[in-house]
Structure formats: C-alpha cells, structure tokens
Design brief:
The protein is built from three helices and eight strands, in the order αααββββββββ. With 161 residues, the protein is an alpha+beta fold. The chain folds into two domains: 62 residues, no CATH class; 86 residues, Immunoglobulin-like (Sandwich), CATH 2.60.40. The strands form two sheets. Strands 4-1-8-6 form a four-stranded mixed beta sheet, with no helix packed on it. It has a four-stranded antiparallel beta sheet with strand order 3-2-5-7, with no helix packed on it. Helix 1 packs antiparallel against helix 3.
Amino acid sequence: MMNGVFEPEQAAGIVEEVVSQISPGLIEENVNRWGHLSSSDDWYGHIDDITLFLLDRPAYVRRQLMDYFDLSGTANLMIESRPGRGHILINGRELVFDNPGVDGVETWSGTYFQGVPVEITAVPLDGYHFAGWKDTEWEETSLMMDLTEDITLVAEFEANE
C-alpha cells in the first residue's frame, strides 16, 4: 500500500486537492470563530505540517515494520515496459495509469522489504505475447522474487504473428 494509495506524493496530492476546495473566506471564518489560530497563514502552516508528515512518514513506518518483524532491510524494484503492448502486476496490483500511486507505466518503482516475496506478473494485451524479461534467462510471465538488493526488470512484449 505504501507503493500505491499511501505513497507520499499521492497522499500529499489529496491534501492539496481538499485544501483547494476550501475558500479563503471559510478559512478566515474558522480562524476568527475558534480562536486557536492567529491567522489564515497559521492555518496554512498547519497544512504544510500535515503535508510534511505525509511525505516523511513512510520511512518511519518501514523502519518500525523492519524492527517489529526483524526484517533485514528494503530493496527498490524498478519495472520498465512498453505501454500499449502489455502491463505488469505487482502482488496482484496493476501498474496502470488509473491506479493511485502509478504516475507512469513505462517506468515504475517501489520499495519492498527484503525477505518478503514479491509476485511480478507480465500481462500481454491482445495481439501481443510476453517474450521474457530483458537481459535475464527468465521467460516465465510470473515471477516470485525474494528481493535482496535493488533490481530493474524490463518486460518485453512482442506482436503476435
């Protein structure tokens, strides 16, 4: 989830979107009514604090999970593929534009815990087949990987004949 819905930029974007829907007059009314803040600038300062918390939080969460479950560390997984030919699933989650936390489908990356298996599946679109993972001997469409270090996988899809 930290590589998707709870990705820092995704969460911060939601805060920004909600704040943009609140009129400055309503913010000023809130400041005057409740008296807990000195000005609307103070209100925006609290929004900045929330945003910074969201951006910094994943590092703390990962550290806590590693400590609690006695995990050895994290590894970055980078996936590359050509859009329009196929897409990738990571632990069943599609790397497609309309999924939260997926900014691009040509190159995507996420952070995973070492020692926790990650399932990576290449799914060809109609008219294409999966040709393998570039610069590897792996030809299976689905891989179960126990990441021990950063890795980049390039999915190759070819047109059917």
